[in-house]
Specification:
3 domains; 3 strands; about 475 residues
């Protein structure tokens, strides 16, 4: 298409001065370069959104660690309070009933001393011990037994020299045992009865209540015990107050930490919103420049083959980068969506189909085996080389177009007209094989296939080189 220099009225009704082809191309290049610069800047939006999501994850992690630390601090405070309260409560319980215990112990000591004193004042005498004479009493005194307090009981055991069988032993109060010749089973019975009678008289006469002086001494000890109980109760109250204070301080520290994190999050969110607003503004500016480029193409037509591809790339739709759901863009997404309705971004369903693998595999196979060389056929050398070159060119072109349109970041349909061209090349190779087949009379069919292949190639080429329709802005 040749360059058309037209003049259209402006909004105020005046007719602008016509521009030269060089000025038109320069203006169009300026718009295209501006679009390229904006596209390079908008490419950074994906990385920005990923970084912003990582920021949100870090902030959530900081908040979680703050909550965990606060919970752990409260747990340690509760454990320390419980441990101190158990210790103080145990000490308090040990003080309960201490006076009664001391009085019982003092009375038991007093009775024990009284009984021991009465037994020491009860000597052995012939008049009170039937069957024991003066000699045996003297022998007992020689062995340290002269009163009822000097022995406790008797028992039978082997003789000291190991001869004569078992003999009677008298157990002294100090733990020793002695054997007195002449005291056996018959004489030991009155001896033990006499001691038990003396012990019963002593126990009956022993005091059953404490004297006043002993009670006063125990009362003084009880006052000390009550003072200790009051101190322990005060310590228990202090422990509860200290736990409440520690919890309050931990809550204040936790609130300060959360406030600091919230302030940092607000600042980061504000910067992210400003950055997102910049990207939105650049996207709107890009749409405006695309509309301006379309209007320029409508007004002045084609500017030449060299700039044609740059125009197509400049008019590509903006790839949509969704913002985080937690932080919406400060600009209205509805207005931006309305402006991009005329040129929607590629979606997964616009991705090149896997069905294109079939022609790719076919042309790759033809690159290896050629055309008209199967079975016993032998193709001319020129056909062998040219068919392989054509098949290699078709395979390379298909891969060049198909692979980028299958990627996640650059999806899109195959170019218009490529199907017609591939079909024409397939029929052309098939016609070449039919011409090389000398055993079959398919010359007429080969000519018809060749004509059809040429038509398909011409139609596909026309669709490929036809400029895209300009984007109409609403």
């Amino acid at each position: 298409m040749t360059l058309i220099n037209r003049t259209t009225p402006t909004r105020d009704g005046s007719t602008p001065l016509p521009q030269s082809p060089a000025e038109i191309r320069a203006e169009r290049r300026r718009i295209i370069e501006s679009i390229r610069a904006l596209r390079r800047l908008l490419k950074k939006r994906g990385a920005f959104e990923v970084a912003d999501r990582r920021r949100l994850n870090r902030e959530a992690g900081h908040r979680k660690r703050a909550e965990t630390a606060h919970t752990e601090t409260l747990r340690r405070i509760d454990e320390q309070q419980a441990r101190q309260e158990r210790s103080v409560t145990h000490d308090l319980s040990s003080l309960d009933g201490k006076r009664e215990q001391q009085e019982a112990q003092a009375l038991a000591v007093l009775r024990r001393e009284f009984i021991a004193r009465r037994l020491r004042n009860t000597p052995l005498s012939v008049s009170e011990l039937n069957g024991l004479g003066t000699g045996l009493i003297r022998d007992l005194a020689t062995q340290g037994i002269s009163t009822a307090a000097d022995f406790t009981h008797v028992s039978w055991d082997k003789a000291p020299n190991g001869k004569g069988g078992n003999v009677l032993y008298i157990h002294r109060t100090d733990g020793r045992r002695v054997h007195i010749n002449g005291i056996g089973q018959h004489r030991s019975r009155p001896l033990m009865e006499w001691r038990q009678a003396a012990l019963a008289r002593a126990e009956a006469r022993a005091p059953r209540t404490l004297p006043p002086d002993e009670r006063h001494r125990i009362s003084e000890i009880t006052e000390i015990t009550e003072a200790e109980r009051a101190r322990l109760r005060q310590e228990l109250t202090k422990t509860a107050h200290a736990a409440v204070t520690a919890r309050t301080e931990a809550g204040q520290l936790h609130a300060e930490t959360l406030e600091r994190l919230a302030g940092t999050e607000r600042d980061a969110a504000r910067l992210a919103a400003e950055r997102r607003a910049e990207f939105d503004a650049m996207a709107e500016q890009l749409l405006t420049l695309q509309s301006e480029l379309s209007a320029h193409m409508d007004r002045y037509g084609d500017a030449g083959l060299r700039i044609r591809r740059a125009q197509r790339r400049a008019l590509r739709p903006i790839r949509d980068v969704p913002t985080l759901p937690a932080i919406p863009s400060p600009r209205s997404p509805v207005g931006l969506a309305d402006k991009t309705d005329a040129a929607p971004a590629p979606t997964p369903r616009d991705r090149a189909s896997l069905g294109w693998l079939l022609p790719i595999l076919y042309f790759g196979f033809t690159t290896v085996v050629g055309v008209g060389e199967l079975a016993d056929n032998t193709a001319p050398v020129g056909l062998m080389i040219s068919s392989r070159l054509v098949a290699l060119a078709a395979t390379t072109e298909l891969l060049r177009l198909w692979i980028p349109r299958r990627r996640r970041h650059t999806p899109g349909p195959m170019p218009s007209g490529i199907g017609w061209q591939i079909s024409g090349m397939f029929l052309a190779l098939a016609a070449a094989g039919m011409f090389a087949d000398e055993k079959s009379d398919v010359f007429g069919a080969a000519c018809a296939v060749s004509v059809l292949a040429a038509l398909l190639l011409l139609a596909g080429t026309g669709l490929r080189i036809r400029p895209p329709e300009p984007v109409q802005s609403s």
